[in-house]
Amino acid sequence: MEVVLRNFFQALAKNTTANQMAKKYGLRFGASRFVAGITIDEAVKSVNILNRDGRVATLDHLGEFISTREEALESTRMCIETLEAIADSGIKSNLSLKMTSLGLDIDKQLCVDNMVQILECARRYNNFVRIDMEDYAHCEVSIDIYRELRKSFDNVGIVLQAYLYRTEQDVAELNQCNANLRLVKGAYKESSKVAFPDKKDVDENYKKLISQHLENGNYTAVATHDEAIIQYVKDEARQKGYGRDQFEFQMLYGIAEDLQKRLVKEGYKVRVYVPYGRDWFGYNMRRLAERPANVWFVLKNFFK
Ligand code: FDA
């Protein structure tokens, strides 16, 4: 049953019609648990609350299924507006974005030009931008663009996914540019030709990649709610003497709040991924796919 629900939500997340319809409405079906609001003001308010107890954030203006140059430029403008709002409000947050929202599927150069504009803006504000990793079809091109951008910018990082067989090699290669990596398990439905089908293999690979990147002396954002992995990172850091300025834990808005606060109290850096915007549907469906038990939460809200 769980597998059926997971596949169902992963398919819904990619459904263009459902995503377009959802855009017309405000947050529905309990989406406000995972999405901080529709407007930047609402998002800033949510980050302020996180900052109060010591958590920092990464804001993401949600935007998927971009099919025109105008939409890509609008998305770029929203990223810049987000960086300006961070600077104006004084909240502690950087920016996360998806390269498809900047036009990657329309024209690679358009996406690169938009990235450059955003990174220049971030540099003016002394801020940092993280490139989220999308499905396998976008992996290689995202890494290639990242490598090029890294030659001119030191305020950019990328995400790599532990479920992909290729990632160990990617971590080794990106060591050459001292990449700042967010390591995750991976949220998309991928074929067993490219990704470990068994969760226990993903978890083992995840630990291996974290150790590899830390050992190379690079900054590592460990983005998971998995307490066993978090314990593994704490143990590694203690045994091998990695400073707490070499890594941080990251979690998603609305998930494992107690754990987030506990880690802050223990003196670890915790960054919360805070998505906002009208394009909430696909993001929300991926969160349901990760934990179909959340569906009961959605149904409760549906009937409210
Ligand atoms: P796992 O799935 O093993 O879950 C561990 C425990 O966490 C579960 O037992 C459950 O209790 C809790 N949990 C996990 N997901 C939950 C949910 N949705 N609702 C409630 N509880 C939940 N992926 C990607 O492909 N590209 C990306 O760029 C990113 N970016 C990213 C940023 C940040 C900050 C995070 C935390 C995650 C991502 N991800 C991502 C998503 C990631 O790949 C993965 O799908 C989720 O983090 C869920 O996996 P866990 O590591 O939490 O482990």
Automatic annotation (TrEMBL):
Key word Oxidoreductase present: yes
Q: What class of enzyme is it?
A: oxidoreductase
Q: Which reaction does it catalyse?
A: L-proline + a quinone = (S)-1-pyrroline-5-carboxylate + a quinol + H(+)
Matching entries from Pfam families are given as: Pro_dh
Give the UniProt keywords, A-Z. Answer: FAD, Flavoprotein, Nucleotide-binding, Oxidoreductase, Proline metabolism
InterPro entries from the UniProt entry:
FAD-linked_oxidoreductase-like, PRODH_bac_arc, Proline_DH_dom, Proline_oxidase
Known pathway:
Amino-acid degradation; L-proline degradation into L-glutamate; L-glutamate from L-proline: step 1/2
Q: Does the keyword Magnesium apply?
A: no
Q: EC number(s) on record? A: 1.5.5.2
- The segment(s) forming the Proline dehydrogenase domain are 44-298
Cofactor names from the entry are: FAD
Specify the superkingdom.
Bacteria
Report the protein name in the record.
Answer: proline dehydrogenase
